[in-house]
Each structure stands twice: as C-alpha cells, then as structure tokens.
Amino acid sequence: MILSKIYKNTLLILATCLVLSACATKKQVVTDIEGQMQGDVYTGTETVEYLADGVPDRVFFATNETILTTASRETLRAQAAWLRKNSNINVVLEGHADERGTREYNLALGERRANSAKDYLMTYGISSDRISVISYGKERPVDAGSNPLAWSKNRRSVTVKAN
Amino acid sequence: MKKNLFILFLIFLIPNKAFALIEVDITRGNLNPLPLAVSPLSIDDNSKKSFENILKKENIGSEISIIVENNLRTSGLFNPLNKDAFLQAPDIANLKPRFEDWNLIKAQALITGKVRYVDDKLRVEFRLWDVLAAKEMMALAFTTVPSNWRRVGHIISDKVYERLTGEKGYFDTRIIYVAEEGPKTQRKKRLAIMDQDGANNKFLTLGNELVLTPRFNPTSQMVTYLSYFKNLPRVYLLDIETGTQEVVGDFPGMTFAPRFSPDGKKIIMSFAKDGKSDIYTMDLENRLVEKITNHPSIDTSPSYSPNGKYIAFNSDRSGYQQIYIMRSDGSDVKRISFGNGIYGTPVWSPRGDLIAFTKLHKGKFYIGVMRTDGKGERLLTENYYQEAPSWSPNGRVLIFYRETKTNAKGEGFSAKLWSIDLTGYNERLVETQTDASDPSWSSLLSN
Amino acid sequence: MNRSIIISSVLHAALIYITAMSLPFLAKKPLDIPPIVSVELIQIAEKTNIPFAPKAKKIIEKAKEKEKKLVSEQAPPKKVKKTKTKTVVSVDKNEKIDTKAPEAIPLPEKTVKKIETKTENKQNPDKLDEDVKQVSEFEKKEFVDLDNIAKLIDKAKEDTAKVVKKDNDITQDQDKNIVTSGLTLSEEDALKAQIFGCWSIPLGLPYNEDLLVRIKLMLEPDGSVAKTEILDHARMNKPGQGFYKVLAESALRAVKLCQPLRVPTSGYERWKELQLNFDAREMLEG
Questions:
Q1: What is the ipTM of this complex?
Q2: Which residue of C has its CA nearest to B142?
Q3: Which of A97, A140, A146 shows the shortest CA–CA distance to B385?
C-alpha cells in the first residue's frame, strides 16, 4: 500500500518535471511575429512617419521598459542631426504605453519613455529649452488591436514639431 | 454558607441529570437572497393628481417602491418578490398587514408605506415588517421637495438594508466617472456624474480635452481629476454645485493620480519630472506643497487610510509595480504585495481593514483585496482587462471598469463599469449611457 | 566528469525520493466539501447516538466558560432571587435611526409609545438631537415575548453564576450528560435537514466575528413551537452588536418558517425543550 503510494508519487513528480521542462523549451521557440518585432520591441515601419527624409519620428520600447535599443538610438541621432540643422524648430516628445497596464502607472511610464528620448537628444547637443515632454499613457494608441504586435507599436516616444 | 451553596448546587444538579437540555447545532442554511415583498406605497387620489402635475409620473408611490425593489435586488442580498402575487392592497397592508397572506408567498420581510402631498411637499412614510415574527421592525417618515422622490427611494433602501444586514447601506450615493465615446485610437472623454443606479446622468465637461481619474472628496461636493486642458496634463479641482474649476498647485510638469485626504483638506497626487514620479500633497487652505516620497522610481496611485495616518501607493522601486504603505509623512515605507505578478491601484477600504488592488498576472487582470499587512490576498474577478476599483461607502461593494479585447481588425472595443461584492459574488454590469471608465463612488449623501 | 554525474544523479534521486515521501496529498483525492444535502425522508433509528459536531461544541463550551453561566431553566422558582436588573429592552424600542429628520408615524388603532433613541448611534451621534422618535408596536398576543424571556434568563443567570463559580468541573460533567441524553443520529439529522432548508443566512454578515446564536425552544408534542428564547438576549441590544441581532432574527425566522418541527414520534419529555445553536461561520467562510 505505502509502496504503491510512493511509486505513484514518484511518477507524478517525474511527469511534472517533464511538463515543466517542456514549458521552458517552448518559450524559447517564440520569437518575432512576421519579422516586425525583435524581443517584443517593434522593428517595423508601418506606423512610422518622417520628420524629414531619413529622419523617423518615433522610437519603440520593450514591455515595461524605458531603455533605448540600438535602433532607437540611431533614430534619435538622426533626429538630433536634423534638429541641429533646423535650429528654429522646437519639438514635443510624446510618450506612450500599451494598454496592458494600469492607467496611472502608464502615465508615469510614458513620461519616463519620453524623457529617456529627451536625455539622448540632449547628449547630442540639443538644448533642453527646445524639447518639451508630454505623456499620454495608454490614452492614444496608434493600433487598436489587442495583440502583442499592436501593443509593441503603441509603446513609443514620438517626436512632434511644436512650431 | 458553604453548606447552603452545596444544597443549592444539589438541587440544581439532580433535575438537570434527568432532563438535560438537548442541543442541536445548525451550521448550515441557505445562502439565497432573503425573499421580501415591497408593496407599492399607497397614495390617495388628491396626492396622486398633484404629483402627476409636478413630476409627470402617473403613480409616484409605485415609482418609489420600484426604486427600492431594484436597489435591494442589485445588492444581491435580497430577493424582492413579484408584485403580481401580492394579495393585500397597498393601503391596507400599510395599516395592518395580513401576515398569513405574505407568508403564503414566502416573503420573510415586507415593506409598506404611504405617500402624501402636504404643503407642496412630498411626505413618505414607510414600515418594515418581519412577516414570520408578525411584527414591525422599523417605521420612518420623510418630508422633502417632490423632485427629490428618487432619493427618498434610495434612503428607504438604505434603512431597510441597514436594519436587515446590520451594516449601513450605499444606495443614496453617486458615482463620478469618465464617459467615453469614439474610436479606441481617438477616444473622446468627458466627466460624468450619475446616481448609483444610473439615473440622473449629467456630463460635467464638454469633451474638448482629455480628462481622467476623477475622485470625490469626503463630502462628495468636490471632485479632483486629471485634465489635458491646453495639452498640459494637470490635476484640477471641480466644485460640482457651482461648476468652478481650478488647477491644483503650480508644478513645472505633469501632475496626475489625485485623491483627497480623508478630512478633505489635502489633495495627494503624483508629480512627474525628468522620468521619475513622486508623491506630493497640497493643502487646499494654505496651498502649501509637501513632497512625500523621494525615489528615482515611479511612485503613484496614492490612497490614504481612513484615519489619515497611512498612505498606500504604487511603486516600481523593486523593478516592477508593487504596493507599498508608509506613514502619511513618507516615513516607514514597507512593501506589502509579494504575490506573483504585478500590483497596482491600491485603494484603502472605508472600514480600514482591507486594501483593494488591480493585479496583472500571466496576461490576466484581477481585482482583489488584501489585508493592510499584505496577507490574506483574495482575487475577486479575472478578465482580459479591468482596473481601478473604488469602494462603496460601507466597504461592501467595489466598482471598477473593464475593457474588452478587440478583434484582429481592432474592432469591438468597449469600456464598461462593473461592480462586485467583497465576497466575489454578485458581479454586475453598471448601466451607463455611454462607455465608461475610472469610476469613483461617493459617500452617503444623507447622513 | 563521470563522478559529478553520479553525484548529481544520486542527489536527484534522493530529492525525488524525499519529495515522494513527503507529498502524500498528491496521491489523495482533493478535499471534497460535501454539498448541502437536504434529506427529506429519514428512517428514525431507535438507539443510535452521536456526540456533537466537535467544532461547534468547542465553541459553545468556550462561550459558556467565558460567560461563566450555566444554561438551565430547571432551577426551582422559589430559589430565584428578586434582584432584577433592568438592562434588557425589547427589540423594537431600541431601534437605530439616523435619518435627517424622521418623524414619528402614529399607528392607527393602536396606542403609540414614543421612545427617544439614545446612544445607540455611534456613527454620528451629533445628528441625533434632531427630533427622532420611533413607533414601537409590540404584539402581546404573539408568543415571542422577548421582554419576559430576557428577564427570565437574567434571573437564571444570577442563580447559576454562583454554582458555576464553585465548581467548573461540574459544568463539564453536565455537558457530557447532555450529550448522552441527546437525540439519536437520525432524529437529529431529520431536524437539522429541516432547519437547514428554512434558515436564510443573512448574507451581509462579516465572517470573522463571533456569531453564534443559541435559541431555546419549548415544543408541543406535534413539533410546533410554543415558545422561543434567545439565550444571549442581552447581546441583542448592545451597541456594536448589530450583526448579532440580525443573525438572531434570522434564526427566529427559520424556526417559525419550519413549524411544526420534525421531532421524534416518541419521548416528548426528552425533547420538549430543545436548544438550537445557529452558527453561520462555516457557511460565510466557505
């Protein structure tokens, strides 16, 4: 009786181990959707507008992150160069979040994203007087979808001409 | 003396041995809502005509009783019986109910009453009867201006609720919320206010600018909220009676997530600057601003304890959103949420013993409650997206908003208000004219 | 390399073994909370006898010890002391009101008692000075005369308190006595099942408070109820005990609703007095 119980338990535990390890491997398989995402940062161009030729207006972020990716830094360097050339133009950085967070936290998160873009522009010589920041949290999504791709497009900081 | 006592004791003991009292433990019962009958309030012909002229309602007596009936039903604790089965006429029932008749239709409690038109005023009497014990439990009367007739219905509901449950009701209350319209990517949002049952809906702003997160002050006459007026997201103060608005404080950046302190004298909110958000208070009398938290993280969604001594808030200082509490001066910060997932929007219950929150775990959003030390977490409801619980004034019900998942084309979005009982039962859609979000429950208006 | 594999696998095996030994619940079926069964037809056996549900019994004993009193009405009346305490008020009189300006409603054809409510309203005492009156109607012909019952209990308390003080062991002894002279298992089950069906538990109650209501019944041979008493009646009108009152009233309603009670066909002397202990905690917690 006791032996059979132990035997049963051992089987159960082994089965659990197998199931868990299966989970672990499965996760790694999931990567980008249709090549438009890397990790969960949007890398497509569908929603991107241009401030000038070769100067994209927005950068994208990973879930819950405010760190700039290599591609984002490249975009911001192009914006900085364009701003240096057009010294009469001021900009507003609009920070946004996806819909998968509470409203108030997302407002703060959007602000933090816009500021991380602002800081990078400033290190490339753009005066903070020319940059203002506003957060819309999750209030102004570009994609109304409820899926990872839509969310990745909405996690963004957009540089908009203020004048 | 000792001897006497001993004799006394013997006298006691002997009959006891023979006829020991049999005890039976009743540990179960039915958890069905209590069946009760709300008899239409009786009304005489003259009064009926007067009210018909003033209020354009054919029979104000039955209108009031319908309000009572609906309130009691939505509470989930009562089951108002169908009026068609009532055997006794309203006027006679109010004088002397025939309890046998009410017993027959399985009513355990009965509400009767009378409406009269006296000196241009509405006078309502009502009685609550215990049908099985065949006695009156309560009798009250109110006199008010006729236009207040809905509130009379709510006050009766509150009194009945309190008499039958032992705790205060929550029917004579209002809800302020954000009315939403338009496509998901360009939502038009307006502040709106309505009675707890959805009646008397009024829009307070025009929808020219984005407005978010309105909250009542303790007397329910003022509202603090976030407005994007002139594209500057700032905390505003609105007087509901006069309609006057003003910006709260002079901050060089975004202020958001406002609430009142329990005494109504301060507003507590977040101020975001240079990528970090801290919690501040502003005294409404002397306009003094005080910084409460000072941390490079995001600190937001503050909520005072009912005694004003503590503040619960949301911070990502551990890496993810978690719930913390601190003293109201900002000292003694302690994390209280340790479960799996991320936690937001802590709201201290009016009773002080629980904190309601929003939780995100494995792609699902939950509304839950925990004790103020973070223990005893109970998740009440799970959905694709829902957040921002607000307590009913008696701490029994939570109202929150829920958004639907859109399809592949991004269609099918809606935002609605829902309520749920503290026990996790009785989840209900709160009907609103438009889509709705960010609800805040007022205190009891009559107190 | 090989060695570390061996060590590793030995350790893993050990770990699995330990887990297997210490997780017996995995092999068991999950705990099943029995559904509420209201059995209608029950064979009454003659000789079965069961002790109380241990949980409820413990609670009752605790309550008894705390209050230092013995529940017994068998004391000969002549021993009753005449020192009455006027602490008990009828339910209706002490109603809680806190509206802005509730007025008294005169009841037609009835004498109206005006009673000023006092001190009960702890939530907002400052509002009370407004003219607050309450109509109290008490139907004397009804058999639930709470006033008298409460007085009776008070008398009994005074008498018995002394005895209990003297020797606490005796109360324990009597408890045992009660157990052995109780109803048979099926008799008790029949009664319980009936009352389970009649009792609407007030849903708004807090589940963490001490909410045990003990009601004593005087029964007729046909199972109809001649008299009911709430045994901790004084608690009904204590401020802050609103929940208790609500629960007690629901228990009284259950008894009324269930009349005539499903009592054994024989042995009237044995059960003509019966105590019901209404305990909602199990239901409200679950």
A1: 0.90
A2: C102
A3: A146
